[in-house]
Design a protein that fits this description.
Structural class: alpha/beta
Strand order of the largest sheet: 11-12-10-13-14-9-15
Number of helices: 30
Shape: globular
Number of strands: 21
Length: about 725
């Protein structure tokens, strides 16, 4: 049980809640059994016979069971015959679990697990049995649901005497909160979730247990926010008529209302004497980089330095290029032709030449460079700043929390922190995952951005649709535009799955069924240059190319010297080529919903309309096609992020991948339980403000320590 289900203590077992409950009537419909699924049925043995084969050496037991709605055959072979033969006599009622298969055109269970239910005598026993809610637990092949139930029954003891077993439990909810909200006690909730008499019992138990999860997590985050607020930081107020004023004066457009509002929130934070911790959410192309750049210029104005961290070299170079272009002579401070209020903007990546790197490091330590843009190379020990005032992290989910912390430790005092993400996060998730960050949202696109039309291309069902897709790419190029073709894999290495798996929510069942390897950049590029796009200038871009080669391709693509770029998801974040209007995503079903949305945001960045074609081999009725249909149907990232979350386990949301710790959420659903999370946040904030060390709440401290084993505490610390 410990190995397969990660249940090590009695407490773990009691908090392993049933996934659902079956009523006897629901369980026993043999006529409705789905093929290839693990099922649990309650039925009566109608017939049991042993057959011999191989000259009497082999034995097979065939048992026929019935529940009035249908019949089902069970088969047992070899030594597995003895126990069922003695226990499954005709007339015996039992519970059976196994995988439904077909043999000789009849459904059967081979070697099912079973548990006899004893002879029910008297109407009362039958009635009780008929209406009993049977808990079905998250199980695995090695541990059936009822074996877990037996273990829990052993812990709880005889019915009606559970209080004795549950007496020593630590209840994290303060009595005043529990009574004020009308919630059940913890022993009562655990008894009702494992042994409910009615559906009301289940609802009452779940309501209480959701509160435990939401509240303990929100207390952890509230303590984090409070600790951050205690840290000292240097206030950074932009100088009057300084670099920021000069930059605003040279902008060829006006900021959107949203950009102005969010900038005000950021500048208000920067002016305080404790570190800003702000999450900036914005749709792809909503102008987050502009807001971040103005914040960085404001900090430079105030005598500090600003660092921007990008997840990839391609993106760091892209940011460096676009920021120096936007700043013009203001980015050439101290150099010939530079503006007098200007500053130096340097790039620092792992693959730079020694001389360029030495100069960049020197510019940072002397304070000559006010702005540095780089990858994780920025956090190496050798990198020293003159006075680091602001850290901007682009694309939070790509960046390890340890890395961000290391950079924050380079300031004389903790620098202000701005985290940017283009993956829209529903409010509840922001409260749960980024609970220690204040959130700003940019929800309008800058003027001049164009709509993107998205369509699913079912290549297997309708091959002519794919032919038409390549015609559309050629039409866009003929009109003077450019396009992307995105593949999940690089392809010059058999074991390589490219970059797609990073953003997808794990392989779906359809992927498992689809044995063909994902399409690869190298192969697809070759097919296109020999086939449908033979008359166009096609280039490839992927993560294993040399940095100079990558930068060269991106530069030529941006300059319009390449018609079609065949790439992996390296283009997912930050690549900005306004002339690119078409994108074809191959094997689109192998990408996550939010990742498809990110990719699509690379087109339609100029005045011409964008086109995104999602190519898939998946059949029409599959969940994968439904997911792609949802992406094609809306450009609203918040709506898509809800769809994405509903299709994934909540554990993914809580950064399980980053923290390496299993999700602590068992009954709380981040999307559905918005009210509980918001209320828990209020209660948690009030308690922590009143008693930061929780000295008056020893049980809550214990629960907090259990939730925040060291790894998770660090994850929240840096989250």
């Amino acid at each position: 049980m410990a190995d397969h289900l990660d249940l090590h203590t009695v407490g773990d077992l009691l908090h392993h809640y049933p996934r659902r409950y079956a009523e006897r009537g629901e369980l026993t419909r043999l006529s409705d059994l789905p093929l290839d699924e693990h099922v649990t049925v309650v039925a009566q043995v109608a017939d049991a016979r042993v057959h011999t084969f191989n000259g009497g050496r082999g034995r097979r037991l065939e048992v026929t069971i019935t529940d009035g709605s249908g019949r089902l055959q069970l088969v047992f072979f070899g030594k597995g015959v003895h126990k069922p033969r003695s226990e499954l006599q005709p007339g015996t009622r039992a519970m059976f679990a196994g995988k439904v298969s077909v043999f000789n055109r009849k459904r059967q269970l081979a070697h099912p697990e079973f548990k006899t239910l004893g002879a029910e005598s008297g109407a009362e026993a039958v009635e009780a049995f008929a209406h009993q809610l049977l808990p079905l637990y998250p199980a695995c092949k090695q541990m059936e649901s009822w074996q877990i139930q037996q273990a829990i029954d052993t812990v709880l003891g005889p019915a009606g005497h559970e209080e004795t077993a549950l007496a020593g439990l630590v209840d994290p909810l303060p009595d005043s909160l529990r009574e004020g909200r009308g919630l059940a006690t913890l022993p009562e909730a655990l008894r009702k979730i494992h042994r409910p008499a009615t559906k009301t019992d289940i609802a009452m138990a779940r309501d209480r247990l959701k509160w435990d999860e939401a509240f303990v997590l929100q207390v952890a985050l509230a303590r984090r926010r409070r600790a951050d607020a205690q840290l000292p930081a240097a206030p950074r107020k932009p100088a009057r008529d300084g670099l920021l004023t000069a930059f605003d004066a040279r902008l060829p457009f006006t900021l959107t209302e949203g950009q102005r509002r969010v900038s005000e929130e950021i500048f208000a934070d920067l002016a305080t004497d404790h570190p800003m911790h702000r999450l900036l959410q914005g749709e792809v192309g909503s102008g987050k980089t502009m807001v971040a750049l103005r914040a960085m210029l404001g900090v430079v104005d105030a005598g500090g330095q600003a660092a921007m961290l990008a997840p990839t070299e391609v993106l760091a170079q892209q940011h460096h290029r676009s920021i120096t272009e936007m700043m013009g002579e203001l980015a050439a401070g101290g150099m010939l032709g530079g503006a007098e209020q200007g500053t130096k903007v340097v790039l620092l990546t792992g693959s730079m030449g020694a001389a360029a790197r030495r100069q960049a490091l020197l510019d940072l330590v002397t304070g000559e460079a006010g702005i540095v843009i780089g990858t994780h190379a920025l956090i190496e020990d050798k990198v020293q700043f003159h006075d680091l005032g602001l850290v901007v992290v682009d694309e939070q989910h790509r960046f390890g929390v340890e890395q961000r912390d290391a950079l924050r430790s380079k300031g004389k005092q903790p620098p202000h922190l701005l985290v940017m993400t283009a993956t829209p996060i529903p409010r509840t998730v922001a409260m749960t995952v980024f609970g220690d960050l204040e959130t700003s949202v940019l929800d309008q696109l800058p003027s001049g951005r164009s709509p993107i039309a998205s369509h699913v291309v079912p290549a297997k069902d309708k091959p002519h649709f794919l032919t038409r897709a390549w015609e559309r790419v050629r039409e866009e190029v003929a009109a003077g535009h450019q396009g992307y073709v995105v593949c999940p894999r690089i392809g010059d290495d058999a074991g390589d799955e490219g970059d797609a798996s990073k953003g997808a929510a794990g392989p779906s069942p359809e992927d498992e069924a689809e044995k063909r390897p994902p399409l690869a950049v190298v192969e697809v590029a070759e097919q296109l240059t020999k086939g449908p796009l033979s008359d166009l200038r096609v280039e490839v871009l992927h993560g294993r190319m040399q940095p100079e080669a990558k930068d060269d391709v991106m530069r030529r693509f941006a300059a319009g010297e390449v018609d079609v770029l065949v790439a992996t998801t390296v283009i997912e974040v930050g690549v900005n080529v306004p002339n690119a209007t078409a994108m074809v995503i191959m094997d689109a079903d192998r990408f996550g919903v939010s990742q498809l949305h990110q990719l699509r945001g690379r087109v339609g960045r100029g005045s011409a309309a964008g086109l995104c074609l999602l190519v898939t081999d998946m059949p029409e009725a599959s969940p994968a096609r439904a997911r792609l249909g949802a992406v094609a149907a809306t450009l609203d990232g918040f709506e898509l992020s809800r769809i994405d979350l509903e299709q994934r386990r909540e554990g993914d949301v809580l950064g399980q991948a980053q923290s390496g710790v299993r999700s602590s959420l068992r009954v709380l659903a981040v999307i559905d339980d918005e009210e509980v999370i918001a209320a828990a946040r209020e209660e948690a904030t009030a308690i922590v403000a009143d008693d930061p060390e929780l000295t008056g709440y020893p049980e809550l401290r214990t629960a907090l320590d259990a939730l925040l084993d060291k790894d998770r505490e660090e994850y929240l610390d840096k989250g």
